[in-house]
Amino acid sequence: MTAAEQVTSPHAAEVLRELRAYRAAEEAMRRRTRDSMKMGENDLAALRFLLRAQGQGRVVTPGMLSDHLGMKSASVTVMLDRLTKSGHLTRGAHPTDRRSIAVSATPGSDDEVRATLGEMHRRMMGVASHLDQRGAEIVRRFLLDLATAADEVATA
Amino acid sequence: MTAAEQVTSPHAAEVLRELRAYRAAEEAMRRRTRDSMKMGENDLAALRFLLRAQGQGRVVTPGMLSDHLGMKSASVTVMLDRLTKSGHLTRGAHPTDRRSIAVSATPGSDDEVRATLGEMHRRMMGVASHLDQRGAEIVRRFLLDLATAADEVATA
DNA sequence: CCGCGAACCTAGTCGTTCTAGTTACAAGTG
DNA sequence: CACTTGTAACTAGAACGACTAGGTTCGCGG
User: Fewer Cβ neighbours under 10 Å: the N or C end of chain B?
Assistant: First the structure.
């Protein structure tokens, strides 16, 4: 707005506008998914985390979900109750630590999430595949710089 | 994972990984800001919307916030109560429609938000400015395609 | 074998949003 | 001008989700 900001190149503003538009679109998509599954934000994030870990054969405990989602362990317990009652996951015995618990997604939940987020992932992969090697490098660098910028804000 | 997805170029996966990293970083940044201001997500979004509109001399009504944030008007009322009590905004008379209300941010609120999100915006602008014309076009196209993909998922 | 810490759960509270219903005003019609 | 319909915001009350505090069970080191 001020004269000092006029030094920025005109196409930079275009890029940021497009970035905002993408973020809005993705958020709206995520919201539609949550609404159609009648879930909260954390519930869906937990399922995604769970499915990804399961795909790699890793065991997931409530504590890991607590760390990953930034929730207190008590809140995780209630969330697991909720998702268990809705049939999205089950609690089982932990293979090595009898204090702990192994959380696993039900097959139905797996299908449900893959049907929506998997579709999204495929499309995104399609978009990214249209980049040639140089384009990919440019985009990658751009995203990396943005992430660095975000990390540095309000941290110093 | 399956053989069918092996057709995607290897650098595409890299790009998507970077994209996820950026989204996580931005979300974390936003969360830090919200926590430091002790506000909810919508509260902060409302303030940003308000400040941007105010910068353009536009009048903001509760109804506009309701539309923009996807909240019910009743929820907006409560949110305005909250933000008024915390000293971030004031309610005033609407210039033309006496049914309506003009919401405006307090100077203190303006400073507070600019100090954090303005900093973020400057940094993002800096990153985007490092792109040359061709790079900007590539990134812009990429983001536009992603937004289109998100829009089309679960809509058909 | 005993105490300490870790992992999870239970109970109670608070904050945020929603639905339903109300009041005040605007706009169009005879 | 009187009347009807629609719009803007608010009030009341319930639902939902996350947090704090306080158990319970179990692994581990002395």
Answer: C
